[in-house]
Amino acid sequence: MIEFESIGIIHSPFRTLTGMPIQPAGAAGVPGTVEVNAEYRAGLQDLDGFSHVILLYHFHGSRGFDLQVVPFMDTQPRGVFATRAPKRPNPLGLSVVRLDRIEDGMMHILDVDVLDGTPLLDIKPYVPAFDAQGAVRTGWIESARRSVAEHQADDRFV
Ligand SMILES: C[S@@+](CC[C@H](N)C(=O)[O-])C[C@H]1O[C@@H](n2cnc3c(N)ncnc32)[C@H](O)[C@@H]1O
């Protein structure tokens, strides 16, 4: 058993799962805030030097999982670990968002694809030299007919 406690809460304009963006790339300019619990705020020192941050969070609105899912951007079943579906054995989400500013322990972010009230588990700076890869293959997503910005969430994972 591994236990985590949330270190804060992610706030966004999205109160229901359906109709939301499915990735930050489909949520350009959508504002949100990250309210870091008071006891962790000292850990935000120096983060304002980074334009983007990686948020790791609990898909708290997800119950259960399937090992094969039809992803939002596809019409046929895929292994859940080949997708970003929110219903997973360990319901962890990862979003790279833009960091606008930090004020009074509150991070103001943009490009948010997260449900309002989502429990935050960790924050890391996004560093292209660490995180961006050059020659990549993107599996079934290569053949997705429409771009991520043209898809919104529906009720398939509710
Ligand atoms: C496809 S997931 C991708 C999230 C993240 N960028 C990732 O790759 O892990 C995004 C969808 O998850 C759902 N979602 C977002 N926040 C959630 C939460 N707290 N609990 C359950 N589902 C959530 C919404 O339907 C949203 O459109």
TrEMBL record:
Residue span, TsaA-like domain: 4-135
Q: Does the keyword Flavoprotein apply?
A: no
Pfam families this protein is in?
TrmO_N
Name the Gene Ontology biological process terms.
methylation
Q: Which UniProt keywords apply?
A: Methyltransferase, S-adenosyl-L-methionine, Transferase
By its UniProt entry, which Gene3D superfamilies does this protein fall under? YaeB-like
Question: What GO annotations for molecular function exist for this entry?
Answer: methyltransferase activity
Could you say which residues form the signal peptide? none
Which family is it part of? Belongs to the tRNA methyltransferase O family.
Alphabetized NCBIfam families for the sequence: tRNA_TsaA
What name appears for this protein in its UniProt entry? tRNA (N6-threonylcarbamoyladenosine(37)-N6)-methyltransferase TrmO
